[in-house]
Structure to design on (369 residues):
């Protein structure tokens, strides 16, 4: 049965607002797959895609192909078209239909330019769309795939001129700054020299404590029956500290516990900022072992650490892997990974709003530092 289409177009800003209103409880995609149309080309659509074109595509997939759906988005140089509803599986990549969102770019990028002219405008809309979807679904940008990577397809989609590494980097840039570079998916990554890396600011315990103990994070005393940790004060819970008088715990007392039991085990003084802040906040709210694993998973996603080294133990290999990594991009990936863990918890219904707000505040903090 045909699933229907949305048939609405958006600017990147309007698309962000649209996505925030969606619920992914019934189906949660694991990654985004990038495609290009091939035919029609940019030259064949001088004014981009119109609603008439979108309805024609609906007829093609539904009537000519006999499919139940098509890709989720079509992108041209002017707008982002929502096609198959983002909250249901589409049909776009044979191995991955049930697990992924399909994003289709107008153009033939074996032949048409992707880094200039109209192709660049398409690219920038695609970067924005993938970044917005990745943020909404807590998907690390590195999980994105190209259609040609599907083992069951023979297509060379989305074309020779689309460089995956550069595109993913552009998505990360957009996720961090909210801005598009003039040449978004062209390799322009700044490489820091060893001398520059040594001057990067390392972990600041007092700044981390100021964030965690802020009014919007770990405030005063609460005793929520739905909280498995029991009564809590300044984020210190009775379940973890049965011998502590939680109700009468002072701010200085909480700071001492945080420094000893959370900052020291994650080697906060040895981590670069803002990685240290994100790891510390994770240790406080999700556990020290989880904090280390999230750091290692982010390093593995970015190619600095093998998957086999993701073991929850912070040793020389992990600390060495941090040296070439960009700290802001790494911290951003860690926030996405943390949010994904929260979403998997059965208690998301009770505490999800607070956890999501916490991640947003943390994201805003590392961007403004």
């Amino acid at each position: 049965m045909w699933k229907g289409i949305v048939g609405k177009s958006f600017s990147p800003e309007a698309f962000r607002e649209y996505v925030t209103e969606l619920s992914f409880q019934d189906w949660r995609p694991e990654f985004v797959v990038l495609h290009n149309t091939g035919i029609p080309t940019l030259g064949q659509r001088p004014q981009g895609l119109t609603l008439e074109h979108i309805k024609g595509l609906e007829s093609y997939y539904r009537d000519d192909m006999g499919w139940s759906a098509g890709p989720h988005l079509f992108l041209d140089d002017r707008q982002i078209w929502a096609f198959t509803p983002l909250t249901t599986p589409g049909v776009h990549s044979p191995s991955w239909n049930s697990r992924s969102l399909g994003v289709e770019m107008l153009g033939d990028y074996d032949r048409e330019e992707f880094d200039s002219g109209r192709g660049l405008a398409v690219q920038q809309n695609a970067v924005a769309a993938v970044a917005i979807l990745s943020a909404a679904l807590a998907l690390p940008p590195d999980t994105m795939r190209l259609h040609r990577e599907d083992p069951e397809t023979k297509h060379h989609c989305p074309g020779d001129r689309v460089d995956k590494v550069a595109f993913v980097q552009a998505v990360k840039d957009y996720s961090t700054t909210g801005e598009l570079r003039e040449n978004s998916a062209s390799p322009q990554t700044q490489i820091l020299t060893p001398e520059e890396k040594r001057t990067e600011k390392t972990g600041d315990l007092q700044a981390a404590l100021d964030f965690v103990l802020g009014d919007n994070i770990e405030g005063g005393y609460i005793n929520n029956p739905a909280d498995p940790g029991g009564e809590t004060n300044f984020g210190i819970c009775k379940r973890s500290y049965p011998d502590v008088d939680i109700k009468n715990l002072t701010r200085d007392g909480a700071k001492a516990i945080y420094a000893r039991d959370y900052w020291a085990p994650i080697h906060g003084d040895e981590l670069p900022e803002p990685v240290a802040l994100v790891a510390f906040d994770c240790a406080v709210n999700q556990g020290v072992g989880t904090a280390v694993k999230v750091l290692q998973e982010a390093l593995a996603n970015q190619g600095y650490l093998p998957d086999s080294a993701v073991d929850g133990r912070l040793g020389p290999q992990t600390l060495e892997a941090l040296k070439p990594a960009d700290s802001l991009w790494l911290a951003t990936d860690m926030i996405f990974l943390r949010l994904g863990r929260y979403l998997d918890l059965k208690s998301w219904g009770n505490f999800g709003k607070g956890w999501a707000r916490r991640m947003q505040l943390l994201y805003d903090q590392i961007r403004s530092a």
Summary: The chain has a mean pLDDT of 89. The CA atoms of residues 256 and 262 lie 10 Å apart. Strands lie at 8-10, 31-36, 73-75, 80-82, 100-105, 145-146, 232-233, 236-237.
